[in-house]
Design goal:
alpha+beta, 5-stranded mixed β-barrel, 9 helices, 18% strand, flat
């Protein structure tokens, strides 16, 4: 009866009080989340109780009109059984043993079969497939490559463990020996990966032995596949590799052997280095003056970042790298 006598103004006032009380409860709880103990549990309970009292005074919302229940659709009358697809009174199956159940599926199967037959009869396509299979079998290693005496078909890959129990017949040059006098010669070197830079159909490697470096190059061609370029570009720094290549005259200012570079023909990994090494040779090779200068340029906005300073403890703990 009381609710009936309430005027619209009274209902609006109660609704406003309910909103205010609800907002007050929300603020108190969020304050306690940010700073526990801001409001006591008793204060929050009292605020919640006040909100409930106000809500009880509000008239209940009118119930939504009930929707008439939709009459269940009558079940569809079962269709007659489809006629079974047969050829000469027999079921038809494709090359995989699956049954063909209709005329359109049978026509598609016949078309695909004709296309496959024409493709198989085309000598150009056959030659391309044979060349691709031959290149894949000879170039891409399926596992560790064995290189003892005769050159393997695989032009790159990880060699089986070197156990020094037999001669390979290969003669290695040290990186420091490479110069313009060897131009045009095919040579073998055993070295470490200093840096790699692969992009598109080419790759550049800087290889290091001791304090000497030489640049190696790979460019996609009939002799150099895309796979060996990807393989070279994925090598981590300090990985030990065997490389066969042709010495070519060049002007490479970033390497100690600046008058030549190596056009790589074969590339085999002897020992892979971990990607996350504790230090890099480039960082350990810089002087304190270079590091301080890089820090000054970085602070002035002239460099994106300063050089890394390798601590003495890190160098002593990793003398095998340094």
């Amino acid at each position: 009866e009381i609710l009936v006598r309430l005027k619209m103004e009274d209902i609006a006032a109660l609704q406003a009080q309910a909103v205010e009380a609800g907002e007050n409860v929300r603020i108190m709880k969020e304050a306690n989340k940010a700073t526990p103990g801001t409001h006591s549990k008793e204060d929050i309970d009292a605020a919640v109780q006040k909100l409930l009292i106000i809500k009880k005074q509000l008239p209940a919302a009118p119930a939504a009109p009930k929707e008439e229940k939709k009459k269940a659709a009558a079940p569809a009358e079962p269709e007659g059984e489809k006629e079974e697809f047969l050829i000469d009174g027999k079921p038809v199956f494709d090359d995989e043993g699956k049954r063909i159940t209709g005329k359109s599926a049978y026509k598609k199967y016949q078309k695909d079969k004709e296309k496959a037959a024409k493709k198989a009869a085309n000598p150009n396509i056959q030659a391309q497939q044979q060349q691709a299979a031959a290149a894949e079998s000879s170039d891409t290693p399926a596992g560790p490559v064995s290189y003892t005496k005769d050159e393997p078909k695989q032009m790159f890959g990880d060699l089986v463990m070197v156990q020094s129990n037999q001669a390979t017949g290969r003669t290695f040059l040290h990186v420091s020996q490479l110069n313009a006098e060897h131009a045009g010669q095919d040579v073998w070197i055993r070295t470490r990966v200093h840096t790699t830079r692969a992009k598109g159909s080419n790759c550049f490697l800087v290889m290091r032995s001791g304090g000497f470096t030489v640049q190696g190059t790979l460019f996609k061609s009939e002799e150099t596949s895309k796979d060996i370029i990807k393989f070279a570009g994925s090598l981590s720094k300090e990985t030990i590799i065997d490389v066969k290549g042709k010495v070519v005259k060049a002007d490479v200012k970033s390497c100690t052997q600046g008058d030549v570079e190596l056009a790589i023909q074969r590339l085999y990994v002897i020992s892979r280095a971990d990607v996350g090494l504790p230090l890099q040779i480039d960082d350990a090779s810089r002087s304190e003056a270079e590091i301080v200068e890089s820090e000054r340029k970085h602070a002035a906005g002239e460099m994106d970042g300063a050089y890394v300073r390798v601590g003495t403890d890190t160098r002593l703990d990793n003398r095998i790298i340094d």
